[in-house]
Design a protein that fits this description.
- A hairpin with a 4-residue loop joins strand 2 (26-31) and strand 3 (36-37).
- The chain has eight helices and five strands, in the order βαββββααααααα.
- Helix 1 (11-21) runs parallel beside helix 2, helix 2 (66-77) runs antiparallel to helix 3 (87-103) and helix 5 (149-163) packs across helix 6.
- By secondary structure, the protein is α+β, with helices and mostly antiparallel strands.
- It is globular, with a radius of gyration of 17 Å.
- Strands 3-2-1-4-5 form a five-stranded mixed β-sheet, with helices on one face.
- Helices cover 47% and strands 8% of the residues.
């Protein structure tokens, strides 16, 4: 398999998931401005949408979109997830929430034409989404004491928050620290040239608990 990625982009979540799953794959770096791969190919021929991630399977088919790719990795490798009859759907529910309600809300931070008011509004919305997730994070990870692909996606969004100096509630700072300690996460960060780029800022969780949390 080949994972087409851009360092620090949302494809980091898929990169982490593949390492967590112990799958054999080749990483191919994409220049998102020129739409060329590191070996000079036209990335549009791989993914006509023009953005990462894209996962090329052994049979040559290409899978795109974070929710689809991480669901595929989780299913194939039988990674942990929520228990019960609705377990798989709860995982899809969380992946979709992160994708639509957090990931997409970062758009102003990557848009050169966005003004500060747009960024401030996005930061407030993202903050409410983070509060919601922090409020349900009663164990080490989103679905208990074992990693799921949703954790890798959330971690990736937290790296964006830190890069843009957004405040995180205490439980998510602690979650971020736990994720940094995972070998698969460290490996993915190193491969993308991001090792040592992120710190952990201890915060007063009592202050967080006094806030109103909700999506």
């Amino acid at each position: 398999m080949k994972l087409y990625l851009a360092p620090g982009a949302c494809s980091l979540a898929d990169h982490i998931a593949l390492h967590e799953a112990g799958m054999t794959f080749k990483k191919v770096i994409v220049d998102l401005k020129t739409k060329r791969t590191e070996d000079g190919r036209d990335f549009i021929q791989v993914n006509p949408k023009g953005y990462v991630p894209a996962l090329e399977l052994e049979n040559g088919e290409v899978l795109t979109e974070n929710v689809a790719i991480m669901s595929f990795i989780s299913d194939r490798a039988r990674l942990a997830g929520p228990e019960g009859d609705l377990g798989r759907y709860r995982l899809l529910e969380m992946l979709t929430f992160i994708s639509t309600e957090i990931h997409k809300k970062f758009s102003p931070f990557f848009d050169p034409s966005a003004d500060q008011a747009q960024k401030d509004k996005a930061a407030q919305t993202i903050g409410r989404r983070f509060d919601y997730l922090a409020g349900r994070l009663v164990d080490e990870y989103l679905f208990g004491d074992e990693f799921s692909v949703a954790d890798g996606y959330l971690f990736t969004m937290l790296t964006w928050a830190k890069a843009n100096k957004l405040n995180l509630p205490g439980p998510l700072e602690q979650f971020f620290a736990r994720m940094l300690d995972r070998p698969a996460v460290a490996q993915a960060l190193e491969h993308e040239g991001l090792a040592g780029k992120f710190d952990v800022t201890p915060r007063d969780t009592d202050q967080f608990e006094a806030r109103t949390a909700g999506p």
